[in-house]
Batch of 3 targets.
Target 1
Amino acid sequence: MITNLYIIHIRALGLFNNICNQAEDSVEKTLARRQLIVKSNESNSWFIEIKNILRKYNMLEAWWYLDNAPKKGIWTTAVKKKIHEHWSKPIVESTPYYNGLRYLSCVNLEKGKLHPILKINCSSKGDLHRLPTKLKLLTGSYILQSNRIKMFKNEANILCLLCSKDKENIEHFILDCKRLEEVRKPILQEIEEILNDKETSWKCLPQDTKIQLLLDITSVISKLNLDPASVANIEYCFRRLMFQLHMLRQTRILDMQGTIKQQGSRYYSLYML
Ligand SMILES: [Zn+2]
């Protein structure tokens, strides 16, 4: 919603800049000057809306830009900076209040730029399939039983559908569920070896740190003293791990529902990517 709104504002202000750069006697510029003088703040006039948008982002008054039209490149940079400043602060500040975002680090977040987790140089052709799973888990939008019970009134079972041993939350899914051990174990072994080379023991890390490392390594890079090459290797393993856990979970659930014959083979072939 916020994303859509700021894109609309960037485009509207871009159009306003085009009008500001027109000749003084052009129809649009004449109309702009007239409406900004005549119309009230409650008017549905597009130019009044522009005036309100400029005030919202703490920019100068619309008439000033009509008199001193900035060049398009300068204008676009200034507008994006103001808009990102306006929206980034409340988003970053509200993150701690959303439980689903507790592993998402905002420390090195730059306004209007990719999150640092997406800048790690470990991309591969498999990322097209793998990244959505990881990003859903990182942003709390991956639906596990502990989420379903909050979203669907008829859901009563909070236990893991695969093992029925414990509440299915993100920690259980990523680290604990024994029914997913077959894909988890070999990849964690790879991670352990990378960390051992850096004199860090995976087994000695607290569970919270392990989940943090798996979901958003950017906030623990300096704490664990990891170099860029190790970070890239570890992140590559993590993306594979998340995706393979997801695919095996889906396969097992379909299996239990008796639909594996129709859909299972597709999942089986994909989850080892
Ligand atoms: Zn389980």
Note: Residues 147 and 153 are 11 Å apart (CA to CA).
Target 2
Amino acid sequence: MAPVTNAGLAEAADGRSVLRFEEYELPPGQIDLRATLGCTAPIDLDVGFGKGRSLLEWAALGRDGTLLGVEIRRGLVERAFERLGRAGAGGVRLLRGDFRAVVPRLVPGGLVRRCYLHFPDPWWKKRHRKRQVVSAPVVAELVRLLAPGGEVCVQTDVPERAEEFRAALAGAGLQERWWSDGGPGARPFDVRSNREVRCEAAGVPVYRMTFGKPPPEAGGPQAREEGRG
Ligand SMILES: C[S@@+](CC[C@H](N)C(=O)[O-])C[C@H]1O[C@@H](n2cnc3c(N)ncnc32)[C@H](O)[C@@H]1O
């Protein structure tokens, strides 16, 4: 399994930040989103960002908080890092590793506003299905990380996977906010990924869904707890 590494701007001797890709291997155990990775809440996640178009588009939105991109392939992390640096894009942190192994280590829970999964690998062959990123254990960890009201956004061009992802998200207790069966129409996401653009140019249908973590009910147990003293 690839080590979990944190990509950051290297510091030059004169204190300037220089555009050089460096990886720092993280010690085993918990990975604190704020103290270790330098994220500021609210945090968005981009899992398997590939060539990184969605990271650049996110940065261009000028949002508050941090986008944490997690990608398993070093070459892609390096490429995205360089593209972000050239664009002068801020607010994005990159982590190299297998998201399935990384996600249970991320703490604290409750800080993630949005998790994007743009075209998680389709794994056509049955023997490769064990590499699938979206699974019940991973979705359970995402629920833990989501802030109340936060959401998971998934898109894919594989209809069978779309149905599986939809069932996994609903099965974890998330509420469906958007489902599109690949027909033309509005899209709920605020950024585009490389594969999304390619699919649209080729006229390939894209299945999209957004599932949200319900906010604590007004007057419910958590709200009453918070209201106490
Ligand atoms: C089909 S590509 C989609 C890339 C990009 N999101 C897009 O829409 O253009 C899937 C990406 O997920 C990455 N990936 C696959 N398994 C992963 C895992 N376990 N953890 C993190 N990234 C993973 C792959 O390296 C690849 O970049």
Note: Residues 47-50, 70-73, 76, 98-100, 118-119, 121, 133, 193-196 surround S-adenosylmethionine (CB under 6 Å).
Target 3
Amino acid sequence: MPLFAQKLKSSVPLTSVNPALDRMVSTTHAGQAHWAGSGPPGEWCRNCAHWALPGRSNNADSFSPRPCTKYKALTGDTKQKLIPHDAKACRHFKSRYASLVKS
Ligand code: SF4
């Protein structure tokens, strides 16, 4: 577990100095390419082109957890960390539907 994601254990209630950061830490899943919620508002990993099983169809009809290919590209981590479909999108979000929209 990354250091920043570890929870402090204290018998004394601590005041958060950065509630927004605390919120992002608590909602980010291991294996996400960046903080959950740092992407477009209202978007989830299931709508991202990077939420994929390499070598398989990337249809959005299955909500089974999948790895983030952007995370793997950025970190080189080969362990498969599965991201749930309803994880909030990060700043590397790339719409899987972008190629379907004509300008
Ligand atoms: S929004 Fe996309 S790039 Fe970001 S963690 Fe989710 S699947 Fe990965």
Note: The pocket of iron/sulfur cluster is lined by residues 32-33, 39, 45, 48, 50-51, 68, 70-71, 83, 87, 89-90, 92-93 (CB under 6 Å).
